[in-house]
Write a structure and sequence with these properties.
single chain; alpha+beta; Glutamine Phosphoribosylpyrophosphate, subunit 1, domain 1; Rossmann fold; 6-stranded antiparallel beta sheet; 30 helices; 19 strands; globular
Amino acid sequence: MCGIAGAANLRGTPVDTERLWLMIDQLRHRGPDDAGVYTEGNIGLAHSRLSIIDLSAGHQPMHNFSRSSWIVFNGEIFNYVELTKDLAAKGHQFLTHSDTEVILNLYEEYGTECVQHMNGQWAFALWDTQRKRLFLSRDRVGVRPLYYSLTGDSLIFASELKSLLAYNNRSPEIDLEALRQVFTYWFPITPRTVFQNIQELPPGHSLIWENGVLKTHRYWQLDYSQVELGQDPSPATQQRYIDELHGLLEDATRIRLRADVPVGAYLSGGLDSSIVSALAQKFVGSSLCTFSVAFEDPDLDESAYQMEVVGALGTNHKSIRCSADQIGEALPEVIWHAERPLLRTAPVPLFLLSRLVRDSGFKVVLTGEGSDEFQGGYDIYKEAKIRAFWAAQIDSKSRPLLLKKLYPYLAALQKQSPAYLKAFFHVREGSVREPFFSHIPRWELTAKSQQFFSASIRSQLQPSDLYHDVRGQLPTSFENWDSFSRAQYLEASFLLPAYLLSSQGDRVAMAHSVEGRYPFLDHRVVEFSTRIPPRLKMKVLEEKYLLKRTLGHLVPDVVRQRPKQPYRAPDALSLFNPSTGRARHDYIEEAFSYERIKDYGIFDPRTVQKLVEKAKAGRASSHLDSMALVGILSTQLLIEQFVVDLKEKLSDDANRRRSASVCS
C-alpha cells in the first residue's frame, strides 16, 4: 500500500511542485519507504511508497515503456503475474516486475476499461500524455480510499483528506449534512465527506478529466437479481456450491500471499479469520505469523478461542491485551487518521494491533473481513429474519423472545416488554416489504444521538427524508430482491466500505504502514456469493451455513460451533472511570468541558454535561449513551485537529520543508 496525491490545473497553469511535496508529506505514514513527484505542465502526480512487490524497481510515479502514460498507485493487483504473461504475449514491454506497471500496459490495451481485468484493491491516478486525459479509479468494493476536490481552477486528489487540505494550506469547514449522516449511519454517504467541498470517489467508480470535462462513472455494482430462491437446493446442487466456494476462496488466498516481504494474518478467534489463516498456512507452511487483540474485559475477550486456533494450526502467534485506559489514550491519534467522527471505539484496538504488526517486521496481513457481509454472518440478518417471523404472527408471545435471545449482551433490551420491542424493531404487518426493513432499527437508534446537537445546528439542518441519500443510490431492481439480499446489499455497499474497510481497516492499518488483504473480498468470491441461495447462507438462524460446510473442517470444533460474537471494544468505559468518577485522560475532560462544547457549537453544552455526569457515575450503560459519548468526543477532537489547529500545523510543515530544502 501507498499514498497518492496530485493536481490538475484546469486552465493550464503549471503545477507547483512544492505543493505536491507538501501533499505527499501528509501521507508518509502510508508509504515510508520512498517518495516521488512527477509534473508535466499543468499536471502533477505525487507518491509515497510502501515497498511490497519488486522492492528495488517499483519507484513511483512510474511510466510505461513508451513514456506515453504515468501513474501513481495505491494498492495491489493480485493477478498481475497472469496479466503480465497475457500482455507480453500481445507485444507489451515491461521495465519492472511490479504490479504497478501492469496497470499502465492494461490501459494501453483496454483504455479505461482496464479495471475490468484487474483482481485487486486499488486507488490510482493515471496521466495519458497523448490524450491529455487524467484517469482516476477506485476498486470494486472500496478497500482503498480516494478523495478529490475542485478548488478554484484546480482538481486535486489524494488518499487522505489531510493531503488535500495541505495543497491550499487551509482549514476545512464541517459539512453539517454529512455530520447528520455520521450520527445516523456511522459514516457519511459517498460522495460526501465530513468536510465541505471535498468528495470521496465511491467504490466501483472511475473519474476521468479530459478536454476540461470531469466525469465519474460506475464500472461495477453488486447485483442480487440472479440469486436462486425457492426450496432448499438438492444435495448435488449444494455440493456444487461447496466445491465452487472452496476453489474460489483457496485461490483468492493464494494470490493474496504474493509479496516480496513476509505476510502474516489477523486471528480474531472467529470462523472467518481462522479459515483464512488455515488456508494461508497451506501455502506458507508453519512459518505463518498470526496477530490478535485480547481485552481485559472478559465479556469482550476472545483470546481463548484465538489460542485454540493457534494450537491447532501451530502458527507463530503474537497478541496485545487492550485496557480501557489504553483505548482512551490512543483515541485522538485514531481520529487524526480516521478523519471523521467515530461512534464506537472499536477501531482503536485495531490501530494498536497494526502497531504490533509493524514492530514485528511485517507490512502485510490477511484478514477475514467481508465474510459476514457476503456469507450471511451478521446478527442484523438474523434480527431481520426474526422480525419477519414475528410479523407473520403479530400477536405471538414467544416470537419476540427470540430477539432477546439474539442479544444476550444487551442488558437494557432484556428488560423490555413485547410492546416496546414491537415498536423499536418496527414489527407490523407488511413492514418486511419496506426497502430498509433490515436496517431501520439500527439507523433510528443511532439517529437519536442527534438530540445532543445544539439548537443552532438543528436549525441549520432542514427536515428531510432521513434516508434520501441511501435511497438515491439503490439499484433499480433493489425492491424486487428478497429481503435477505436487500439486507446484504445495504451492509456491503455502505457499512463495509465506509466504516469497516475505512475506519476499522485502511486508516488504522496504514497509520502504521500495514497493508490489509481480504480473500473474502476477491470480486470472484463476492460475485459468486450474490448467486448463493439465502437458505444456504443462513439455515434458519445458523449463520454462514454454506461456509461452515465448505471450510469449517479446517478450524477447531469449538470455533466452528461457537455462536457468532460481534467484535466490540469498551466505549464509555474507555473514556470515564466510574470507580474514580473522573475522565481517564485530561484531554477528555477538556473536550467535554462546558466552555469547549459551547465554543465549537456543534453540541448543546447542557445536555452533554448531563450525559458526562451519567458516565462518570457509571450509569451510561446503554448502547445510545455509549454511541453519543464517543461520537461527541470524536467530533470535538476532529474540530480541534482539523479546523482549529491544522492551519498552524501545515504552516509548520511547510516551513520545515523550506528549511530542509535550503540546507540541502
